[in-house]
UniProtKB/TrEMBL annotation:
CDD domains: SDR_c. It comes from Promicromonospora vindobonensis. Its EC number is 1.1.1.-. SUPFAM superfamilies: NAD(P)-binding Rossmann-fold domains. This is SDR family NAD(P)-dependent oxidoreductase. Belongs to the short-chain dehydrogenases/reductases (SDR) family. It is an enzyme of class 1 (oxidoreductase). Pfam families: adh_short_C2. InterPro entries: NAD(P)-bd_dom_sf, SDR_fam.
């Protein structure tokens, strides 16, 4: 294991049973991290853990309700006690929400669902891990947002506001935690090319639009306007997101904090 990118790092991944969370957990473990995956669906977490164990990695699984501050705090305390530190944390929690409904037909509940859901879990998980990070061991907090944070597009009011909120949260948190030797970075992928095949909630999210176009969700992602709206004419893959996350979590990215890493394939040009 000597010389691996994340050797001796203890990494907590919330939403570790999901498509992105699982992909990142597998890569982190392969690169030497001891991985702690947490989420609400035990079967999905166990599937990721089996892959990591089969590849010779270290992983521990915890079924945790990320909307429960006490449960998340207890989990973080237990990880820090057992591992000695928390060096890296990723919030990859997904919240099902509406995309495509215009203001005239959008309910307040539908508008608020992603804003409250995503930002609530971000606050809960970050507060739980941050107190166990930094000092002599550099800490890294990674968050996920979406191009909706910057796009001027119809039908994504709640989604776009929540994405912008996540990026603002990360930027402001970076300023607060920098004196404690903790970096905070936001990753902004687009819709992920192979996420539906990996069981992501992307399938349910884009199913109405795909059905209206007479396509499967995979066809909608591959052939629809999302791809054509990127400079590279392709969407990011789970592997690319996970490998980028591993670099950002490593000491090689030591000068980086308070920023957004754009993985949109050029859908947005910063």
């Amino acid at each position: 294991m000597s010389g691996l990118l994340l050797e001796n790092k203890n990494a907590v991944i919330f939403g570790g049973g999901g498509a992105i969370g699982g992909a990142v957990a597998r890569v982190f473990a392969r690169k030497g991290a001891r991985v702690f995956i947490a989420g609400r669906t035990r079967a999905k977490l166990d599937a990721v853990a089996r892959d990591i164990t089969a590849a010779g990695g270290e992983v521990e699984v915890a079924q945790v309700d990320v909307f429960d501050p006490e449960a998340v705090a207890e989990h973080a305390d237990a990880v820090a006690t057992r591992a000695g530190s928390i060096d890296v944390a990723l919030n990859a929690v997904s919240v099902m929400h509406d995309q495509g409904t215009l203001l005239a037909d959008l309910t307040l509940e539908e508008f608020m669902r992603p804003i409250d859901g995503f930002l609530r879990t971000l606050f809960v998980t970050t507060k739980a891990v941050a107190r166990h990070m930094g000092g002599e061991r550099p800490g890294v907090i990674l968050n996920l947002s979406e191009p909706g944070a910057k796009l001027a597009a119809a039908g994504i009011l709640g989604h776009g506001v929540s994405a912008a909120g996540k990026e603002a949260f990360s930027r402001l948190l970076a300023a607060e935690l920098a004196p404690s030797n903790v970096r905070v970075i936001d990753l902004r992928p687009h819709a992920v090319a192979d996420a539906p095949a990996a069981g992501s909630y992307t399938g349910r999210l884009f199913e109405p639009a795909a059905a209206a176009a007479g396509q499967s969700v995979q066809e909608f992602l591959d052939d629809g306007g999302m791809v054509q709206g990127t400079l590279l004419k392709r969407l990011p893959t789970l592997s690319e997101i996970a490998e980028t996350a591993a670099f950002l979590a490593s000491d090689r990215a030591g000068p980086m904090t308070g920023t957004v890493v754009n993985l949109s394939g050029g859908a947005l040009v910063d």
